[in-house]
Amino acid sequence: MEVNLKKTQVMIFEKTNSKKAKPIFNLGKKDITVGKEYCYLGIKMNNNGNFTPALKQLSEKALHALYSMRRRLNIHQLNPKSAIKIFDRIISPILLYNSEVWGAYVKNDFNNWDKLPIEKVHLRFCKLYLGVGKKASNIASRGEPEKFPLIINIFKRLFKYITHLNSLSETAIAKQAFLISKNLFTKQNTSYYGKAMDILKAFNLNAEITDLESITTELIQPITKRLN
Fold this sequence. Notes:
2 domains; three-stranded mixed β-sheet; two-stranded antiparallel ribbon; 5 strands; 8% strand
């Protein structure tokens, strides 16, 4: 088997840029690049585990799709139902790609959510549809076409994904990663498990849902009701 070194990188995850000498990786006599950023399965990651590059990348792709659609379609002439359907079918899947994972690391702050690149694209669509300026009220711009902030959709997808993780066998890689995340949480380290628990706490659901393993399909409905 021949490995294409142009498409091969090593990335060392660390919280801060360490001044220590980086280890050297090689394949045969050729060195493998140690990168600080890598795009894996469509999600851009950096070496400190921050999803900011991914959110920026997804928002740029969605914005490109939005303007491409706008050149072919006058969205002002659509009724609200059709406009929302187009957004949900074309733009939203780009914005929410892999949000089941990165959504756990989004701050549970509705006040500042509008400042994040994902929601900015959503708001841009709403304002383009309504024909209002960029400085128009965000709440009113979403309210007129009866749209909610995308953070709600993200949290819904996240907890549905957790029910899927709970249904997996112990030998599944995703399940093992989930259990490792729980172990980090019990040791009071930052983890996916802990971030998801923080979301439950933010919506006062942690009293009735004490751990993520207890989340079932039946519990998704009360969770989503609380989110709305």
